[in-house]
Each structure stands twice: as structure tokens, then as C-alpha cells.
Amino acid sequence: MPIPLRKENERYTYADYVTWPGDERWELLDGIPFDMSPAPSRYHQEISGNLFFEIKKFLKDKKCKIYPAPFDVRLPERQQTDEETMTVVQPDISVICDPAKLDNKGCKGAPDFVVEIVSPDTVKKDMKYKLLLYEKHGVPEYWVVHPEENIVMVYKLNEKMQYNRAEIYSKDDQIELILKDGTITINLEAVFS
Q1: Contacts of 30 (CB under 8 A, 6+ apart)
Q2: CB–CB of 106/72 below 8 Å?
Q3: Which domains does the chain have, with CATH numbers?
Q4: Torsions phi, psi of 128, nearest 5?
Q5: Global confidence as pTM
Q6: pLDDT in tens, 16-29
Q7: Which of 9, 31, 122, 171 reaches 20 to 30 Å from 193, CA-CA?
Q8: Residue 163 near residue 135, CB atoms below 8 Å
Q9: Which residue stretches of the chain are H helix?
């Protein structure tokens, strides 16, 4: 995982984030900036595109909306304004079913569904920090895609607002994704092709 470029003991907010150069991609995790470069691999992009396409087809003319990265998801703590928010992530795929969470800057609050496609540089961030972050902010379903192994780890919130142990699916499996607009079955062979 790349080391965040920051001053010792300094944390940043969304107000700082929006002043950074537009040709750079960053995420803020509890005020710590993470550089999103280099660009994802070709296979990462193919998987992301395939998964996006399958979900987008299903959501056509429905209330839920899907967004690919880069798309800012601001996750404020209670009572934080946009400017004070210290967590801004750019999931590979986000689905938001509450239109009140959407604005021209992206999404403010937890999406209904998030996908992160890991790379060797991001596996710790996606499997540790973001897992805890998405659980804390109440993202109902979080998928972690491992391109090199062709597996998907699915985390779902339980009634205690904690993620259950991951369900693991391989290239030969299908996954049911339940959204407010209905249920879609994702064929992983098509995603990993």
C-alpha cells in the first residue's frame, strides 16, 4: 500500500481535498490521504466494466443509481458538515438508492452497495480499513473482488449492524444481489471473462 503523503500528525478534511489538483486521485480515510495512483490494471478495468454493465442493465428505469470510479463518496461522522468530513472514498462501483444522498459532488452518506477490486497495492486498505469503514457507516453490502484469484468476498450487515463472515464465491458461481429495486443474479463467469 502506498504511504500517504502527509505532514506528521496532520489530518485533512473534505475542504482540503477539494483544493487538491484535479488531475490526481486521492481518498481520505479518517483524515489520512491515500494516493490512488498508479492507474488500475487492464484486467481490473475489465472486471469493473463487466460488473458495472450487468448491474446497470438491471437498474435501467429504476430508482437506484450506479456509479463507477472516480466517484466521491463522503462519509461524515454525526453532525459533520461537508467541509469537516474526514472520509472521502472512491469505490470502484457504488449503488445508491436514496436520491437525497446524491448531489453534484457525488454521494453523501453510505451507499447501498459498494465494490472494491483489489490490487497488490490496495489489498490491505480494501480488506482492513475500508471493510471497517463501510461497516461503521452502515453500507449494507460490500464486495471485495480479487482479480488474481477470480474470487469475490461478500460482506453483508446483520441485525447488529456488523458484517457477517465473508461469503466467498469463485468464477463458476452466481451471486444474488438484493437491492431496494429488486434482486439481480450476477454470473461471475461473465464478470471474470
Answers
A1: 11, 86, 87, 133
A2: yes
A3: 40-69+89-191 (3.90.1570.10)
A4: -115, -70
A5: 0.91
A6: 999 988 788 899 99
A7: 122
A8: yes
A9: 14-17, 42-59, 123-124, 130-136, 188-191
